[in-house]
Write a structure and sequence with these properties.
By secondary structure, this protein is α/β, with parallel strands linked by helices. The protein has one domain: Rossmann fold (3-Layer(aba) Sandwich). Strands 3-2-1-4-5-6-7 form a seven-stranded parallel β-sheet, with helices on both faces. Strand 4, helix 5 and strand 5 form a beta-alpha-beta unit. Helix 2 packs across helix 8, helix 4 runs parallel beside helix 5 and helix 5 packs parallel to helix 6. The protein binds NADP nicotinamide-adenine-dinucleotide phosphate. Pfam families: adh_short. Keywords: Oxidoreductase. InterPro entries: NAD(P)-bd_dom_sf, SDR_fam, VLCFA-Steroid_DH.
């Protein structure tokens, strides 16, 4: 079994680490002996998570209440963790809080989503991935979505932002694979998180378990560039295969119940 602190460094940052998939990553990493920096907006939820990690796994934690859709967030995060040996960075926050048509949300809402899901992801990769490359060890996980495979109705800016994350992860994997840094673009399907339950009427949909998602990803950090959770071929390509783009977009736009 991989010795995570020895392989990567002793601290992991989880951007969006206070519930759902991010909290599952935090527990999985703490169980592997990593100290944890948790980032999210709601301070009390962060504190509860950190307290539980310390109690259950005996690791050290640090929490930062930041809004990742703001210009200064990643710079503040870098400053607040400058004294730590950051070996793993998981950029998890990124779900869409409202699935509505493009013009049914404000321009500011679109800008905030794109900032959190693209600009801050890029900045985190640059500011935290750079030192990993210099040290010759580390891991970067960018959590993306099946919405990245093709455009779709009610998914325009969200899907576009997730395609950005997928392609960014793949490009960084190509650049850093021989520099000792593992990069994984983690593609998720419907997963049972508080965000999803706030957004969608779940009905009888089969949902992935966040614990399974995080465990699988942590066991496959070195198997990038892309890991598709729940796929029979998790390192394979788009499930739309050789479909022409129009058919793929129409398939993505069909409501799934
Ligand atoms: N759940 C699914 O079915 C599903 C499907 C495909 C892909 N994904 C991807 O999986 C990832 C996780 O999704 P999720 O369902 O767990 O929900 P999420 O809302 O993306 O993540 C929840 C975590 O992120 C934090 N967060 C959200 N917005 C933030 C912001 N602006 N600034 C700082 N922290 C923020 C939340 O805490 P606060 O609210 O306190 O800030 C919480 O800790 C996302 O990237 C999403 O695109 C999820």
């Amino acid at each position: 079994m991989t010795d995570f602190p020895a392989t990567y460094g002793s601290w992991a940052v989880i951007a969006g680490g206070s519930d759902g998939v991010g909290a599952a990553f935090a527990r999985g990493l703490a169980a592997r002996g990593m100290n944890i920096v948790l980032v999210a907006r709601r301070a009390p939820v962060l504190e509860d998570c950190a307290t539980a990690l310390e109690k259950d796994y005996g690791v050290r934690t640090r929490t930062l209440s930041l809004d990742l859709s703001t210009e200064e967030a990643i710079g503040e995060l870098e400053h607040a963790t400058a004294d730590l040996d950051i070996g793993i960075f998981v950029y998890n926050a990124g779900s869409d809080s409202r699935t509505v048509e493009f013009l049914d949300r404000t321009l500011d809402e679109h800008r905030a989503l794109v900032h959190r899901n693209c600009v801050s992801v890029l900045e985190a990769a640059y500011r935290f991935g750079g030192p990993m490359v210099t040290r010759g060890r580390g891991a970067l996980v960018l959590v993306t979505s099946g919405a990245a495979w093709a455009g779709g109705r009610n998914l325009a800016s969200y899907g576009a932002s997730k395609a950005f994350d997928l392609i960014l992860a793949e490009g960084l994997w190509a650049e850093w694979r021989e520099r000792g840094v593992h990069v994984l673009g983690l593609v998720l399907g419907a997963t049972d998180t508080p965000s999803l339950r706030r957004t969608l009427d779940i009905g009888d949909r089969v949902l992935a378990d966040p614990h399974d998602v995080a465990e699988q990803a942590l066991e496959h950090l070195a198997d990038g560039p892309t890991w598709i959770h729940g796929s029979e071929n998790p390192t394979g390509g788009s499930p739309f295969g050789a479909l022409d783009r129009r058919s793929a977009v129409l398939a993505m736009s069909t409501p799934r119940h």
